[in-house]
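On clarity, I found the account of how folds are encoded harder to follow than it need be. Since the whole study asks how a given chain folds, the encoding of that fold should be made plain. For illustration, here is how one protein appears when written out as sequence plus structure tokens:
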Amino acid sequence: MLKQCGVWAVLLWPYLLSVSIPLDCKEEQGSLSRCPSISQEKLLDRVIQHAELIYRVSEESCSLFEEMFVPFPLRLQRNQAGYTCITKALPIPSSKSEIQQISDKWLLHSVLMLVQSWIEPLAYLQTTLDRYDDAPEMLLNKTKWVSEKLISLEQGVVVLIKKMLDEGMLTTTYSEQGLFQYEVQPEMLESVMRDYTLLSCFKKDAHKMETFLKLLKCRQTDKYNCA
């Protein structure tokens, strides 16, 4: 069954890349100011589609890395050894009741915080994966694709914030404020566990991004029946 899934993943991967709608929202001068050519509703739909694809591919990347480099005992070790996610310190709502109570504004800002906090770590992950002797090309391509799409998602969320909340360009960036600490040439086992933790944590946060955006969409259409 796993082999069949792997075969389908290989066959469908180029198709997924080709059908994903670009999140380009630029005026003729290349700025991201007001995006007059696309409605707020369509922009939110595109942002959600990007978040869905990013989560799906992050899930596939994490599973592929796990199968290739992380024996089962080490998977347990990650949970027991106190590896924490780099975004744990961010003021992001986690419980269902907290998420239901926060405003649309805070939902969008939470998504932006998560997106920005992962741009630099995923770029760094690319350099570490390149050093693996047996890293499959599919894993490298998937993580590179996610890294690039995350930047596109950031642009879309920033424009969405300006459209929905009428706010100016945000300058707060979380990826360069000490959330992610580099290590100089860690031991191989430590490197594998660190990268595995990064992929696992990003998968969780990508799911949060998708959930927050879909809740926002629900509030736009059926405010009193969003669970």
Notes: The radius of gyration is 18 Å. Residues 1-22, 27-34, 169-178 have pLDDT under 50 and may be disordered. The CA atoms of residues 10 and 138 lie 8 Å apart.
